[in-house]
Structure formats: structure tokens, C-alpha cells
Design brief:
Shape of chain B: elongated
Structural class of chain A: alpha/beta
Distance between the termini of chain B: 47 Å
Strand order of the largest sheet of chain A: 5-8-9-3-10
Structural class of chain B: alpha/beta
Order of helices and strands of chain B: HHHHHHHHHEEEEHEEHEHHHHEHEHE
Largest sheet of chain A: 5 strands, parallel
Radius of gyration of chain A: 34 Å
Radius of gyration of chain B: 35 Å
Oligomer: heterodimer
Number of strands of chain B: 10
Shape of chain A: elongated
Largest interface: A-B, 149 and 155 residues
Number of strands of chain A: 10
Largest sheet of chain B: 5 strands, antiparallel
Helix content of chain B: 55-70%
Chain lengths: 529, 555
């Protein structure tokens, strides 16, 4: 429950003023709806009585009938405003939620960040974010407005028609509605979502592993497995539907029950002589009109379990990084020093070292440790452990090209200026250094658009663009993970020279399979398995 | 916007024939129940009207209230029960439809995949197919109700007061006129909102998958701020559209609100005696007035329901269009049943003469091949020449367009394919690790043998040893936790576990550094020394040299 509440706080806090206006108009719509039916009912009963008594001429018809028209038009106008304001508020909240998530996930370690690459993980995150989108519009605002409407109607009815009628309407609706919705909130909607995810996963596995499944004669078995997953997913959906339908049926009985109670209370008032016939009947009409405050809640509560699960999965957990305090290098310390069992390395400004070792020897891991994205032991950056650095100053001094770097959708310029606007000349200089200027020019310059994930560039080109992006940062320490992967020997050599020339003062550590004997490197360090 | 034209109409007809017609009977029954539920309300309204008119007539108030209250509640129970039963039928119809379409989709794509890709198919089968449900349930229920209930209420209103009936009649039919407009506008609005969320989500996915780079560039704050700014711009554009879309749906509300208000005011004036016409020559009673007021909102309710469900229908049509596109997509099915079968008898041999593999839409020729037990052969050639297709055809994963492939002295066809595959192993170019323990993945046939010797032979024992959970590790979607070369060695181990007389390997050393490639080649050679024949598709000179024999597939 706590993650759900913190998600709610986040969403409501995104646009508190817009939310408040939306909620106020929602309430106004509900109140005007109840008043419209109540006033109309009273008007008809009162005119009927006046007609029976033969005093129709004396009856003031204009104020009530003007009230009826005003409420009908006003309610429509308020409804329009409510729709606009709540959608506006929700759109603000949608964006706030996504931005908050970006910040939150950015604090993950290297493994967590790498996991975000998987389409399964991304699909799940987006599905969860989508589920939370309904939290305000379908749950929080209607609950608040509905509850407030019931309380205000209670006060108004008590004053107008008498407390027994007000109490009958309140008790006819609220306790039972709360109970039914609470039960509906426990519907296994998150389970249904999980079953759907399992089926999704299963379909992907079956299609991607098709060759192996056919070879091992297990395709039929895999199909049967998928059929089981489908059955489970549909059974879970059916369970949610059952709960939803039961709640719907129970809620639909409440309006007649509340109206019946109001009718009895009205009769009691007339018997006691405490109210006239027209006034005693108001409660019945209002009780019927209040259905509007409760029935729309069904959908939101049906998804409550799903929303709670989504909020739990998206909640920060323990990803927060211990914020170190160091912002300045220790005087006289080398840019990088590693000292651990069997491996030692000391890197001074202007030096370039090739880090070699077989696949799986841990080259990538050690680079991520240096970059402060994995717990490091025996690593010092300018005399301090990576974890002791404050994030901002550390990123200003250290840039890293990960093994599988990712580009964003947008232009070449968007990608290069991810970390801030850069003068045009510096952009071209970096592209030149990464041996990519010619390619970019041929594709239409800095404003050439790339597809999602940099689609449209070859693997090697994408890698060089990511390198240019790192060079633009002008770091004092540059970490390169397989900078020449996917490049032919000549381009690889140009790229290494370009990086050196672009950052003559920087210390460079490059993990590579090939090209470790390039003259750029002053030394080689071998990482044993 | 609904497309005009014969093609669009034909498409909608096909969609209805495919989705709605098979469950038409249930839908009729459910519609009848749903209409019956709606028809209970006038009786309940009459009970309320009766009680109030009894009060006005001076009868003992409780004596009127008690039976009316009981009737009201009983009516409510009946209405709930009817609605519940209708809902169950609707859900069942939707569930059956989804089950049928999903089974067809999955069964076909798993056997003979189209070019759509696994992610698109999974999204279609799991996330999009359920979009058929509101079309079958909500929209069809609203359709049934709108056809019957307004007419019933209109008849009741006319029987008591023709001006009230006329008011409803005028306001009512105007609504369908507006509804086309409003429905489309609502559709545009909801699509706009979905588009907004869609583009925000794809931006979120894009940034999340680049988040490692963003963090390393120290760009977290800037990217977050930029995301917020772009979302804000999207919001402003969306609100501009919604302002108009909501305005048109407000028209619907306005009509129903004004209809109710007009009825109330007209009835009030009639009861006062200020209006003397309309009730068929006799005075309108108080009870009748209350009754008219109570049924007026219900007259508009089905129309509003239909308007709200309008886009469910459009979503259903769009989905069927996607399904139809997949029906028509070219695909190639494997030979045989792809089920377990006893291995083909006889000594191992493989011979291809004049054969060509049938890919969807084209055929690629196979080289002449003759291989005996323990033989080695490299299929070489430039990318795109059809090396992978040739391997797939030899394994019976693709049908032949021409010529003949002989396996163990028999023709490779639907009869022999399953038995042939029981004698061979296949190593695809790309590893896919499902969400299962490595132990299960290594042993696809489920023989339960100890994987240690296979791992040792494939030079992969240390990889498993390094994984925190060893053989119990789940490598997940992209093989996270193992490098490309490690994944290849694990695939060799998997092929060893699969056993058989022949290993077909597709580009086993692609994208590997020389050191790692050498280890994979050594593992393959170790397999060959055990007496297994080996065919690889490759353009790696080191591997071609190790294989000894090679045959080129020209581009």
C-alpha cells in the first residue's frame, strides 16, 4: 500500500492546483446532478399538490423552473470544464511520473541499467507506468469528489428535508458502497497482468527458439505449454471479470435500496408531521441521482490491485547511491590507480593504456567499477574511491564509452548534445576525431534524424557516434570498452588516434580484443581470467 | 475518422463476420437480458410515483411507502440479476473469441513464423486481442439497449402526455445525428490521448534503454528536464484537440440535460393547471408527473452508453485489419509434424542434388552435398547468399522448392523429417535464452543427462562455474551475464547434449574476437573427433581452414 500512496503523492503533487480545480469541478458536477433531480422531483410534487389544492395560481413557478434550467445548463458546462481540467491535470501527472522514473532508474548500478535494455524489462515498466496513469483520473479524484458529494448532500438534505431522510440516503449508499468497492479492490487484477506477461514471454520464447524446438521435436509440447499459459491468463481475466460483475450488480442494487430507505424515512417524517409531501420526497430523487457518484468508481477499483502491483515494482527500493562528498581530486594523485590481488595499474594524465584479456576475464566489469556504477575495491580516482565522489563532478572528470552503447531517437545533434549544448565547431571536431564526420555529412549533417535506438546507423557508426559524444565532454579520464569493435583495421586505427588527439591531456583506458599494439597506447595491462 | 468507400465497408463487413457472427446467438441472448434489465426501471419508477401520489392523496404514509420500497428493492435485485447474467454471456462470448483468435495466431506463428517478428506477435496476442472484448461486450450491449429501451420509454411517455413524448422524440433522434459527430470526435479524442501516451511511452523506452550512456555522460538531469519539456509541449497540443473534442461530446449531455429539464418544467406547469393540453383530454396526475420525470433520464442513457462505446468498435475493426494482414503474410512451414519421433534407421548419410530451399516468396539453391559419418563441410559465400536457408533446408526447417535431399538413404519429406531431426543437432546464429534455468535450456530433449561432459567438450564449464547460480541461472532475454563468445560455447554444449550424427552450425564464429573464435572452433573440432559430421555456414577464414572441405554458395 505504501508504494501506491507515494505514487499518488507524486501524481497529485505534479499539478496540485490543476488537480484541485479538477476535483472541485467534479464535485460541482455531482452536486448539480443531485440538485437537478431533487429540485425537479420537489417541483413536480409541489405543483401537483398545489394543483390538487386548487391554489395553482399562487404557486411561484418561476424560481424553481429557472433553477431547473440553470442546473441543467450549469451541470453541462461544469462537466465540460471538469473533463478539460482533469485531463489537463492527468497529462501533467503522466509526464511527472515518467520524469520521476527516469531520475529514479538513472540511480541504478551498471547491471540494473543494462537490464533496462531488455525489451521484456522495458515492456513491463511501460505497462506498469500505464497502469498508474489511471490512479488519479479513475480512482483518487472520483473517490474524493464522490465522498465530498455524499457529505454535502447529507448536510443539505438534513437541513432541507430533515435528518432522518439525510441519514437514510447516507446509510443507504456509503457503507455498502465502501464495502463492495473495497472487495472489488482486492480483485486479482495484478495476477491477471502477471499471467498476461507470462504468456507474452512464452510467445516470444516459442517464436525465437523455434528452430531448437523443431529440432528437438518439442514444438507440439511448446504449443501445448502456450495453450496452458493462455488458459491461465484467460482464467485470471475471467476471475477479474467475475469480481467486477459481482461488484457491478451489487452497486446497482444500492440506488433502489437508498431510494427505498429515503421513501420510508420520508413517510416517517410525514407521519410525524415534520415535513410536507413534496419535501419528504426529495430524498428519493436525490438518492437515485447519487448513483453517479459511485458507479464510475467501479473501473478504478477493479484495477486497484494492478495499480498497487505496478507502484510496488516501480518504487525506488534500495537503488539510492551513497552520495559521496568529494568534488575535487586529492593533490598529486594519479588519475586512476587500481591495486587488487593480481592486478595493479597506475594511470597518469596523458597516458593511454590498453586493457587486454580473454572474453569473460572481467574487462567490462572493471571499467564499470571505475566509472562508479559497480561496487569497487582497490580502485582510486584522483586519490579517492569512486563511491566517495559526488555524482556531478565525477561525471565532469570521467567519461566512459560502454560496450553496448545506446543512442536516442532524434538527430545526430540531439545525440551529441545529450549532456548540454555544444558549439557547432566542437561537434564537428568530435565527429572528425571519431572518424565519422564524412558519414554524417553524407547523411545530411548534424540534423539528420536517427530512428529509435539510433536505427539507420551501422553498429560501427553508432559506436563511433557514442565515442564522439564522450569526447565532447572533454574528460580527464576516458574509459573505452571495445571502441574498435565492428570497425575495419584502418578505421579502428584512425578512431584511436583521433581520440588521443582530441584529448591530449586525458588519461585513457581502453579495453580491447584487437589493436592493443596500436602506437597510441603507452602500455598494456593484461587481465587474467 | 471513418473511411468512406466500398473497400472500408467491405473490411468492416468482414470484421463483423469474423468476430461478431460466430457469437451472434450469445449476443442476442445477452442483449435480450440486458434490455429486460432496462425494462425493469419503469416499474420501479411507477412504484415511487404511486407512493408519492398516495401521500398527496392523504393515505397513511407508511402504508404507501412500505410496499413501494419493497417493490423498488425487489426490482433492483431483478435488474441486477438480469444485468449480471447478460454480462456473463457477453464475457463468455468475448472470451471464446479471444481464445480462438489467440490459438490460431500462436499456433501458426510458432510453426511457420511470418516476418512480423516475435515482439509484434506477442503484443498482438497478449495485449491487443483483449481489445476485442469491449467491442463484443460493451458496444454490443449498448447496441441492443439502444434499439429497444428508448422506444419503450417513448411509448410510455406518449401514452401519458404527448408533449413530453414529443420532447423526448425531438431530443432523442437529434442525438443520433449528433452521435455520429460526437462518436467520431470522442474517437479522435481518445485516439489523440492514446497517441500522446504512446509517444510519451516510446520516448520513455528510448531514454530508459540509453540510460546507462546518459548516466555515464552525466546527462541525467538534462535528459529529465528535456523529457519534461517535451511532455509539456505534447500536453499543450493534446489539450488544444481535447478542447474541441469535449465540446462536441458536451452537446450530447446538453440535450439529455435539457430534455429532462423541459420535461420537469412542462409537467410542473401542467400539474398547476397552467397548461391544459397534452394529456389526451384528461388531467395529468401527480403520480404520472413523477413517473415521467423518472423515466426521462433513462431515455437518454442507452444513447450515451453507445456514444461512450463507439471507439470500441473502431478499435475492433483496426485489430481485425491487423489479423487479416497476418493471415495473408507469406510464411514457410517446416517439414513433418515437429513432434518427437524415433530416429531414422540406417547408417548416417546426407546428400543434396539440385535442391533449392523455399523461403517465403523466393527460392535459394543449395549446393551439391554428399556427406558420410564424421564428415566435415563448410558452406561459404557472401552475406545474403542463402547459407542460413541452406542449413535450415537440410534440417527440414524449410521446405524444398526443387530437387531432392536424401537423409540416411531416404528422401527428406514430411514422413522422414521428424526422424531425421532426431539424428541431428542445429546451432542457430543467435542465441535465445528463454526465462528458464540454464540446465533445462542445455537439455532441450529433456533426457536428464549430466551436462558436465558436454560443457567440458564445448570449453564452457568455466562459464557455468562463473555464474552465481551455476546451472540454475536464468540468462534471460538477451543472454545478459554471458558475452557473445560465451553464448556460442554454451550453444555448442547444447548441441553436444542434443546428440546425433550431424551438427549444423550457422555462423558459429561471427562477431567473435580471434581468441574466442579459436576456442569455439576447437570445441567444434572436438565434437567432430567424437565421430559427428559437421556442416557450418561461415565466412570466417579460420573456420573454413579448420573444416578442410568447403563449397561456395554464389550470391
Amino acid at each position: 500500500m505504501r508504494p501506491l500512496l507515494s505514487a499518488l503523492r507524486l501524481l497529485l503533487g505534479a499539478a496540485p492546483w490543476a488537480m484541485a480545480r479538477g476535483a472541485a469541478l467534479s464535485l460541482l458536477v455531482l452536486l448539480m446532478g443531485a440538485a437537478l433531480l431533487g429540485l425537479s422531483g420537489w417541483f413536480i410534487a409541489a405543483t401537483g399538490l398545489a394543483g390538487l389544492a386548487g391554489i395553482g395560481i399562487a404557486f411561484d413557478v418561476f424560481r424553481p423552473s429557472a433553477g431547473v434550467r440553470f442546473l441543467a445548463l450549469g451541470r453541462t458546462a461544469a462537466r465540460y470544464g471538469e473533463r478539460l481540467l482533469t485531463h489537463d491535470a492527468t497529462l501533467r501527472a503522466l509526464s511527472a511520473l515518467r520524469v520521476a522514473l527516469l531520475r529514479r532508474f538513472a540511480a541504478l548500478d551498471a547491471r540494473g541499467l543494462a537490464r533496462l535494455r531488455g525489451e521484456g524489462a522495458l515492456t513491463r515498466i511501460v505497462a506498469d507506468v500505464d497502469a498508474l496513469d489511471g490512479l488519479v483520473l479513475r480512482l483518487a479524484l472520483p473517490v474524493l469528489a464522490g465522498l465530498a458529494a455524499h457529505l454535502l448532500v447529507f448536510a443539505a438534505l438534513g437541513w432541507l428535508a430533515g435528518w432522518p431522510v439525510a441519514l437514510a440516503v447516507l446509510l443507504g449508499w456509503l457503507p455498502a458502497a465502501a464495502l463492495i468497492l473495497w472487495r472489488l479492490g482486492r480483485a486479482p487484477s495484478d495476477e491477471a497482468e502477471a499471467r498476461g506477461q507470462a504468456l507474452w514471454r512464452g510467445v516470444i520464447d516459442a517464436i525465437r527458439d523455434r528452430d531448437a524446438l523443431i529440432l528437438s521435436g518439442r514444438l507440439a509440447a511448446a504449443e501445448a505449454g502456450l495453450a496452458d499459459l493462455d488458459r491461465a491468463a484467460r482464467a485470471a481475466a475471467a476471475a477479474v471479470d467475475r469480481a467486477d460483475r459481482a461488484a457491478g450488480a451489487a452497486l446497482s442494487v444500492l440506488a433502489p435500496v437508498a431510494a427505498a430507505l429515503a421513501l420510508l424515512a420520508g413517510a416517517a417524517l410525514i407521519e410525524r408531521g415534520a415535513a410536507g409531501v413534496a419535501v419528504a420526497g426529495i430524498g428519493v430523487f436525490v438518492a437515485l441521482a447519487l448513483a453517479e457518484t459511485v458507479l464510475p468508481l467501479r473501473r478504478g477499483f477493479g484495477e486497484l490491485g494492478r495499480m498497487a502491483g505496478a507502484a510496488r515494482r516501480l518504487s525506488p527500493g534500495d537503488v539510492a547511491r551513497a552520495a559521496g562528498g568529494a568534488a575535487e581530486p586529492a593533490p598529486g594523485a594519479p588519475a586512476l590507480e587500481i591495486r587488487r590481488g593480481g592486478f595493479a595499474l597506475r594511470l597518469m594524465p596523458g597516458e593511454a593504456v590498453a586493457l587486454t584479456g580473454a572474453s569473460g576475464a572481467g574487462k567490462t566489469t572493471i571499467l564499470m567499477e571505475i566509472a562508479g556504477l559497480l561496487p569497487a575495491e582497490g580502485v582510486a580516482l584522483w586519490g579517492r574511491a569512486p563511491a566517495d565522489w559526488t555524482e556531478g563532478p565525477l561525471r565532469d572528470r570521467l567519461a566512459a564509452l560502454p560496450q553496448r552503447s545506446a543512442l536516442i531517437a532524434g538527430t545526430v545533434r540531439d545525440n551529441l548534445s545529450l549532456s548540454g549544448p555544444v558549439p557547432e565547431a566542437a561537434l564537428w571536431a568530435a565527429l572528425e576525431a571519431a572518424a565519422l564526420a564524412g558519414t554524417v555529412r553524407a547523411r545530411g549533417g548534424l540534423d539528420a534524424r536517427l530512428g529509435e535506438g539510433g536505427a539507420g546507423l551501422s553498429g560501427g557508426e553508432a559506436k563511433r557516434l557514442a565515442l564522439a559524444r564522450a569526447l565532447i565532454r572533454k574528460p580527464s579520464l576516458l574509459l573505452l570498452d571495445e571502441p574498435t569493435e565492428g570497425l575495419d583495421a584502418a578505421t579502428a586505427a584512425r578512431v584511436l588516434e583521433g581520440a588521443r588527439r582530441a584529448l591530449p591531456e586525458a588519461a585513457i583506458l581502453a579495453a580491447l580484443h584487437r589493436g592493443a599494439d596500436h602506437p597510441v597506447f603507452t602500455r598494456r595491462a593484461h587481465l587474467g581470467a | 475518422m471513418e473511411e468512406a468507400g466500398e473497400a472500408a465497408r467491405a473490411r468492416r463487413r468482414r470484421a463483423k463476420a469474423r468476430i461478431i457472427a460466430p457469437v451472434a446467438r450469445e449476443l442476442r441472448a445477452a442483449g435480450a437480458l440486458s434490455v429486460a434489465a432496462g425494462a425493469v426501471w419503469p416499474a420501479q419508477a411507477a412504484a415511487i410515483a404511486w407512493a408519492i401520489s398516495e401521500w398527496a392523496a392523504g393515505a397513511p404514509p407508511m402504508q404507501a411507502a412500505l410496499p413501494a420500497a419493497a417493490f423498488l428493492v425487489l426490482g433492483g435485485l431483478l435488474r441486477a440479476a438480469l444485468g449480471h447474467a447478460a454480462g456473463r454471456l457477453h464475457f463468455r462470448a468475448a472470451d471464446r473469441t479471444i481464445a480462438r483468435e489467440r490459438a490460431a495466431l500462436i499456433g501458426r506463428e510458432a510453426r511457420a513464423p511470418s516476418a512480423a517478428g516475435s515482439a509484434a506477435i506477442a503484443a498482438l496476442a497478449v495485449q491487443k486481442l483483449p481489445l476485442l472484448q469491449p467491442w463484443i461486450t460493451r458496444y454490443q450491449a449498448a447496441l441492443a439497449r439502444v434499439a429497444a429501451l428508448p422506444l419503450l420509454l417513448l411509448a410510455l411517455a406518449f401514452s401519458l402526455s404527448w408533449p413530453v413524448g414529443l420532447t423526448l422524440l425531438v431530443a432523442g433522434p437529434l442525438i443520433p445525428v449528433f452521435m455520429a459527430l460526437v462518436g467520431m470526435a470522442a474517437e479522435a479524442a481518445s485516439r489523440r490521448r492514446l497517441d500522446e501516451i504512446g509517444s510519451m511511452n516510446s520516448m520513455l523506452m528510448d531514454r530508459l534503454s540509453a540510460l546507462l550512456d546518459i548516466r555515464l555522460l552525466g546527462a541525467t538531469e538534462r535528459v529529465s528536464a528535456e523529457f519534461a519539456a517535451r511532455a509539456e509541449a505534447l500536453r499543450e497540443r493534446t489539450m488544444a484537440v481535447l478542447r474541441i473534442a469535449f465540446l462536441s461530446s458536451t452537446v450530447l449531455e446538453l440535450f439529455s440535460a435539457l430534455g429532462v429539464a423541459l420535461v420537469a418544467v412542462f409537467v410542473g406547469f401542467t400539474l398547476l393547471g397552467e397548461i391544459g393540453f397534452g394529456s389526451w383530454g384528461r388531467p395529468l396526475t401527480l403520480g404520472e408527473g413523477v413517473f415521467l420525470l423518472l423515466i426521462a433520464p433513462e431515455f437518454f442513457q442507452p444513447l450515451r452508453e453507445l456514444a461512450a462505446a463507439w471507439h470500441d468498435r473502431a478499435a475492433g475493426f483496426a485489430l481485425v485489419e491487423e489479423l487479416e494482414a497476418l493471415d495473408a503474410a507469406p510464411r514457410a512451414a517446416p517439414l513433418g509434424r515437429a513432434a518427437e519421433a524415433p530416429p531414422l534407421p540406417g547408417p548416417f548419410s546426407l546428400k543434396a542434388t539440385g535442391a533449392a530451399a523455399a523461403l517465403p516468396g523466393r527460392a535459394t539453391p543449395l549446393p551439391e552435398i554428399a556427406l558420410g559419418p564424421g564428415g566435415r563441410l563448410a558452406l561459404t559465400g557472401p552475406s545474403g547468399a542463402g547459407k542460413s536457408a541452406a542449413l535450415a533446408a537440410l534440417a527440414g526447417l524449410l521446405p524444398l522448392a526443387a530437387g531432392r535431399v536424401e537423409v540416411c538413404g531416404r528422401r527428406l519429406d514430411d514422413e522422414s523429417a521428424d526422424g531425421w531431426r532426431a539424428r541431428i543437432a542445429f546451432m542457430p546464429q543467435r542465441a535465445h535464452f528463454p526465462d528458464r534455468p540454464l540446465r533445462d535450456w542445455l537439455d532441450p530433449k529433456g533426457g536428464g543427462a549430466d551436462p558436465a561432459p558436454a560443457l567440458a567438450l564445448a570449453d564452457a564449464a568455466e562459464i557455468v562455474a562463473r555464474l552465481p547460480e551455476g546451472l540454475g541461472a536464468r540468462l534471460g532475454e538477451t543472454g545478459g551475464g554471458v558475452s557473445g563468445g560465451e553464448a556460442r560455447r554454451l550453444m555448442v554444449a547444447r548441441a553436444v547434449m542434443a546428440g546425433g550424427d550431424l551438427l549444423l552450425a550457422d555462423e558459429p564464429t561471427a562477431d567473435l574476437d580471434p581468441e574466442t573464435a579459436a576456442r569455439v572452433i576447437a570445441a567444434l573440432m572436438a565434437l567432430n573427433r567424437e565421430g559427428r559430421a559437421l556442416i557450418v555456414a561461415t565466412h570466417d577464414p579460420a573456420l573454413i581452414a579448420a573444416m578442410g572441405a568447403s563449397v561456395e554458395i554464389p550470391a
